[in-house]
Amino acid sequence: MSSFSTTGDSLRQIGDEGFYVVNEVVSKRLGHIPIIKGDFHLLPAKVQRFVTEKVELMRPRGIYICDGSQNEADEITNKLIERGMLSPLKAYENNYICRTDPRDVARVESKTWMVTPDKYQTVTHTPEGVEPIMAHWLAPNDFSSELDSRFPGCMSGRIMYVIGFSMGPIGGPLSKIGVQLTDSNYVVLCMRIMTRMSPAIWDSLGDADFVRGIHSVGVPRPVREKVINHWPCNPDRVLIAHRPAEREIWSFGSGYGGNSLLGKKCFALRIASNIARDEGWMAEHMLIMGVTNPQGHERFIAAAFPSACGKTNLAMLEPTIPGWKVRVVGDDIAWMKFGADGQLYGINPENGFFGVAPGTSHKTNPMAMESFQKNSIFTNVAETVDGEYYWEGLEKEIKNPKVEMINWLGQKWHIGDAGKAAHPNSRFTAPAAQCPIIHPDWESPKGVPIDAIIFGGRRPEGVPLIFETFSWIHGIFVAACLKSETTAAAEFTGKSIMHDPFAMRPFMGYNFGQYLQHWMDLAKAPKGEAARKVPKIFHVNWFRTNKEGKFLWPGFGDNIRVIDWIIRRLDGDDSHALKTPIGYVPTEGSINMDGLDPVKWDELMSVPKEYWQEDVKEVRKFFEAQVGIDLPAEIRRELDEQEKRIAAM
Ligand code: OXD
Ligand code: MN
C-alpha cells in the first residue's frame, strides 16, 4: 500500500473545466495528485486508504471530495449546463433534463454479477445446461481479469468524485454507510438526491465498516469514440460486479441510474441482502406506506412488485373513498428488522425517488407530480419549447397539445408523430422530502411498524385481484412463485410473463434457496426476545384483463378499496373471506365499491381450476430448474399442498 501525504495550498487551475487545485496528495507510486475540493485528511483513515488504492488503479487527474451541499450541486450543475449535458427546464424551479447515449437506458441484468469464491453462495444448483435466472455468478479469477481489462487507467483525464453517503437516516441503528467513487458528475447530482450525502457521515462511521462502490463510465481521455449527447459510456464493456464478502461494488461502462447510483440496487439490495442475512434482517424491493382509516388508525404496509409495476403509484395513492389517508415512507426499497418486542420495523434507506416517468400524471400519481416540480433531474424524457417535461401519459394534461418538442432522441416531435416522446424507462429523480404526503416518520431511525406485506405483479390472466395467504410460510411460497409481465426497466423486449420471486430476481444477492430459508428463520425469535409477530402476507393483481385485453380493475386511487379489505383482515375481521385453494379471497360485497363503475366481480376474483392446475405444474418445473436441491423442504411441501387443494376444487 502506498503512503500518501498532502502538500500545502496552491490555487493552480486544472484542465478546461475551471476547477482549481486546493491541495495535493502525494503518492509514492503516482507522485502528485491534485485535490480539487475537500480536505483529504479529514476523511477517516480507512476511507483515505480506499481512495488512494483506487486512485492508483484508475489514475484520475484530480480528486473531488463531495460534501453534498447546495453550493457544490450548483457548481456541478453549472458546469454540466456549460458542457451541454444538462439543460434547465425553464418552466420549473431548478429542474434539469438530460438525454443519455441511446445505448445506455436501462439496467443490464445480463452483465450484472455476484463474485463469490463458491458458485453456490450466489446461485442455486440448477440442472446441467440450465442458466440460473436469480443472480449471475462470476468466479473470482474471471472477475480479476474482467477488472484488469477495464479499470486500470479508466479515469485518466477525468476527475474522481468521492461520495460519502448514508443509506437510511445518518447514524440510525438500521442505517449503513457507503463511499462511492465515480467519474460521472451526473451521478454525483443524482446520488445527492437519492442518498444522504454529507460530511456528517464521516463522524458517524466510527469503527463501523462501509460499503465500497467504484464506478466509472469507462471512457478515459483522450476519448477514442465520439461521445453521444455528452453522455460518456462504454456499452460494449458494461460490467456491474458485486463482492458481497468484501462489501464492494464495481460498476463500469454505464451512467444509467440502476447501474451507476450504487446506493440503490447494488448496495441497498444486492449487498445489503447479504449483510441482512448475516445480521438477521431483510433488504427488500418494497415500498412502505402508512394507511390511516376513517377511524384514524394507521397501519404500515410493505409491498413488493417487480420494476415498473406501480410501486411508486401505490406508495403515493390518493384514496378515492372518503376518510382514508395514505402517506409514503418509501417507494422502492425497504430495510426491515424485527425488534426485541417481536414487531417488524422498516425504514426506507433512500432519500429520493428514481421513478419511471411515462404513465405518471396528475390522474395516476398527483403526489409524484408534486414531488418533482423543483430540484429534480429528468433523464430521457421529452422537452417542450416552453421548457416543460413531457412523456407518454401526459397527453390530456399538457397545456398546449400542439407544442413543439424535442423527444428523448433529440429530434423534433409533436403529439401524434411516429415514435415515442420519452423512452419507456425514462426517469425522474426527485427528493423524497418534496412529496406532499411524505410520512412525518419517514426518517425515523427506528423505522415504522410493518403489519402486512403485499406481493404482486402484472398478471393478465387467472390471478384474482387480491388474496390472502394462509400463513407466513405459505406467503413465502406465494412470493417465491411471483411472476409478472416484463417491463422496460431492464434490457428485455417484448411482453412475456417472467418469474420474479419476491420481485427480487434482478437484485438477488445470494443463493435463492438460502434466501427462502432466511425468510423462514426470521419467524423464530432468538432466546430472550418476544415471539415474533410476523406480518400477514397478501398477493394483489391490479392488471387482470378481460377477453378483449381491457383491465378489469380501475387501479390507482381505487386500490385503496383493496387496502381497506386488507386492513380489516389485519384487524381480525374473519367474516369477509372465502377460502380457495390459493388463499382467502374477499366475499362478494366485502370490498367497498361505492362510486365505482360496475366491475365484473366473478371475472376479477375467480380462481379458475384449469389455470391453477397449469400454474402449479409450471411452478414445479420452475422450482426444479431454478431452485433444485436448494428449495427448503417446507416450501416444497407448500407446493404439494397447494397442488392437492387445486386438484380437489
Ligand atoms: C428501479 C428498478 O429503478 O426496479 O427501481 O428498476
Ligand atoms: Mn425498483
UniProtKB/TrEMBL annotation:
Keywords: Decarboxylase, GTP-binding, Lyase, Manganese, Metal-binding, Nucleotide-binding
Database matches in Pfam families: PEPCK_GTP, PEPCK_N
Any Gene Ontology CC annotation: cytosol
Signal peptide (residue range): none
Catalytic activity field: oxaloacetate + GTP = phosphoenolpyruvate + GDP + CO2
PROSITE patterns recorded: PEPCK_GTP
Ranges in coiled-coil conformation: none
Assigned EC number: 4.1.1.32
InterPro entries reported in the protein's UniProt record: PEP_carboxykin_GTP_CS (IPR018091), PEP_carboxykinase_C (IPR013035), PEP_carboxykinase_GTP (IPR008209), PEP_carboxykinase_GTP_C (IPR035077), PEP_carboxykinase_GTP_N (IPR035078), PEP_carboxykinase_N (IPR008210)
EC class of the enzyme, as a word: lyase
GO terms under biological process: cellular response to glucose stimulus; gluconeogenesis; glycerol biosynthetic process from pyruvate; oxaloacetate metabolic process; propionate catabolic process; response to lipid; response to starvation
Cofactor(s) needed: Mn(2+)
Molecular functions (GO terms): GTP binding; manganese ion binding; phosphoenolpyruvate carboxykinase (GTP) activity
Domain Phosphoenolpyruvate carboxykinase C-terminal P-loop as annotated: residue spans: 281-645
All residue ranges annotated as the Phosphoenolpyruvate carboxykinase GTP-utilising N-terminal domain in the record: 50-277
Main function: In parasitic nematodes PEPCK carboxylates phosphoenolpyruvate to oxaloacetate thus introducing the products of glycolysis to mitochondrial metabolism.
Family membership noted in the UniProt record: Belongs to the phosphoenolpyruvate carboxykinase [GTP] family.
Subunit-level organization: Monomer.
Protein known as: Phosphoenolpyruvate carboxykinase [GTP]
